[in-house]
Amino acid sequence: MVNEDMRIIYLMDKPNISKMLTKTMIAILAVMLVIIPLFACSNTVDEGNKIANYGSYGADFATALARSFPFRSPGSEQESGASVLIAAELQKLGYPVQIQEFSYTDSQGVMRNSQNIICQLEGSGFTKLDDEGNTTTELIDERWNLIGAHYDVVVTDKDYQPPTDSGQSEQADEQEQVDDEDRISSGGQAADPDVPADTTDDTEPEAETEDDFDTNPWQMEREIPVPIDFSTYDGINNNASGVAAVLIAAQEMLADQPGYDIRFVFFGAGTDDFAGAKAYLDSLSTAEMATLEAMYNLEGIYAGDKVYAHSGTNSVSAGNVKDYEMRRKLYEVTDVFYNYRLNTNNGYSLYTNQSSMLVNAGKGGSSVFSEWTFKLSDHTPFDQAGIPVVYIESGEYNINSLAELGIESKNPSFSSTGGKISGTPFDSSGYLEDLFRHMAEPSSLEQLYLSPTPLPDGAESTQTDETVISESEVTEGSAAVDMKDLPRLEQRINNTAFILVKAMQREPSGSRLVRR
After folding, report:
1. Whole-number pLDDT of residue 200
2. 2 assigned to some structural domain
3. Considering the entire predicted model, what is its pTM?
């Protein structure tokens, strides 16, 4: 049911971008679309450079979004400012933009206002084939896909207030008073609910150890800044990185045209029970729901150990039975990864959850925890509505129990938060950039003990993002090796976007993509 408080505001009103290409440009693009897959099938290093070579635009935008609006929590002024930035960027690309305003009640009973940013691209369609595999005049062009990511964060400016020059001494006095109260409540020690207070008078107070990242024994050796509060937080991982990947996909599909019609949606209030995704889903008509092929949701893809793609819980059955039709879109995504050899060419790996534990998924008996996840995000409302979903995130699924679900990294650098990055001070563009740059140095690689994740059934062995490139693989002056050596943010955004671009061209059974 459509929210009565919801409004659609059209920022631009121009013909669809796909209809504005000149005949000359269409001819050039048609040639390019034929040539690029040929490069993907080649084993030569230089040809591999043609894949996902999108430059630093996406990484630059992600960084600008994160640093300009670090505390863009649901319903806040910063969230509104972030929506304006995203809409303006889409306009620069030439997209007509819609702002979908909506109201919702949060878990505290407070009415909040937010907005989704929406743009659309018409696909070229698919021609049906006859029984002998020949093209017919019948066109499949009514199907559409939704690609989305939330742009808000769970952290608000109330979690961290940077001191001003005039207020530093007052804040220091207040903090000293709080520290004194903590020491009194804990018998002279740093407050720790898991450690009994020592109330003896002859014991010297222990040194403060809260947020003591540098002395943590699980820590790698390094000489880089370490955040101890939210002063450098900006949500670069969750979810500026996901937003940037969707933006790059939208940019590239203008030239590398999809077969399906595409709607790009940047959700507001995603961290508040997926309010934006729910508002958009509620606004869809019955006809739109019937023609929606799948929903692709991008969460933070930057900081976790590996990039994963999952199907929804609606693809799960009891035992090891799975609904192939509900997982078909997931397999199309992984097919793109393997067909274009993104690990070999670009040093980028895409995994599916292969933890294979038996869990209760509410399907009548135990189910195999494989190729899907219990994690909730903006895909969840669509998953619950019976729409096929593909959920892309970074994290770590080499786990022994569901209690470990939510770990994003087993890198010792994140030990103080139990391997969690999103919503913690570690989700900082400055900190993560320094950390991953240091990890890329050969002297640092030997200090990493990241556990491998089982590969999908029948998959070939691939390197993880931090695997050392052997000298035999390096060709002097090779641009493809440069692709492997790209900063992690740029590498993950571009390759994830590339997978989306090519997945939108995958033909339905018995059809062929129309090339324009």
Report:
1. 37
2. no
3. 0.77
